[in-house]
Amino acid sequence: VGGLGHIIERAGVATTQISLIRPHTEKVKPPRALWVPFELGRPLGAPGDADFQGNVLREALSLLERDDTPVLEDFERDAPASEGETWACPVQIPSPVPETEAEALRDSVLSEIRMLHPWYDEGRNARGRTAFGVSGKSVEAVEAIAATLAEAASGVEVEPEGFMQPMPVLLKYMADDMKTFYYEAAAARPGATPSSAELNDWFFRETQFGSDLLYQLAEQAAPLARAIIPGEYTRA
């Protein structure tokens, strides 16, 4: 987008844009950009809030009056929370007795998966599709994938067979599939619909897989740590 803005500017037409990743915009240096502190995929903030979205658009368009390019301004307000019932996942996932053995962590994660599987199946049947599968395996392999990640998180050098991706990048794809399983299962619960932020908080702070195993995995696969755990989450 930034490069296209330069081309159009040279043709004599002023351009402006909304930026979700400030460091990228700082490097590209488009003629005019408004950085917004919202979730990726939501450049105008929370869906359904026409007034707030209009404010974002007006502030971005106001940059067209600026000639001191390149211009990068910050939108100083956070997006309002979505209205409606506060979402919480009602599955009471038991906390294991504190142990250090990898087997205990693996077993607790497998217990989570089995508890969530009916919701995952319900959601997949309702949608007719699933995003699970970036690792190259179907959801039928979800427990095997979880067990492999538990081994890797404990420091064991794993060499799973039947995958196309090389190690250690494969760990990232497997973690993505696990995240998809948890998110699709939780989102299928009847009742209140969770926002993406609520799903993130639940996954990374309340599930055994997201709040424990995934952090151990990130420590073992240090080059991929930020690809596995978003920067806004730190281990408690």
Written account of the structure:
By secondary structure, the chain is mainly α. Helix content is 48%, strand content 4%. The chain is built from nine helices and three strands. It has helices spanning 2-10, 22-28, 50-62, 102-127, 142-153, 169-187, 196-206, 208-220, 225-228; strands at residues 18-19, 32-35, 71-74. The chain has a three-stranded parallel sheet with strand order 1-2-3. Helix 2 (22-28) links the parallel strand 1 (18-19) and strand 2.
Give the SSE map.
Layout: H1 2-10, E1 18-19, H2 22-28, E2 32-35, H3 50-62, E3 71-74, H4 102-127, H5 142-153, H6 169-187, H7 196-206, H8 208-220, H9 225-228
Parallel strand pairs: 1-2, 2-3
User: What topology, given as strand order, has the largest sheet?
Assistant: 1-2-3
The biggest sheet, with number of strands, parallel, antiparallel or mixed sense and barrel status, is: 3 strands, parallel
How much is the average pLDDT? 86
Q: Got a strand count?
A: 3
Spans of at least 5 consecutive residues with low confidence? none
Report the sheet-strand fraction: under 5%
SSE string: HEHEHEHHHHHH
Q: What best-fitting shape do the alpha-carbon axes yield?
A: globular
**Helical proportion, percent range:** 40-55%
Number of helical elements: 9
Radius of gyration: 21 Å
Cα-to-Cα separation, first versus last residue: 38 Å
* Structure class: mainly alpha
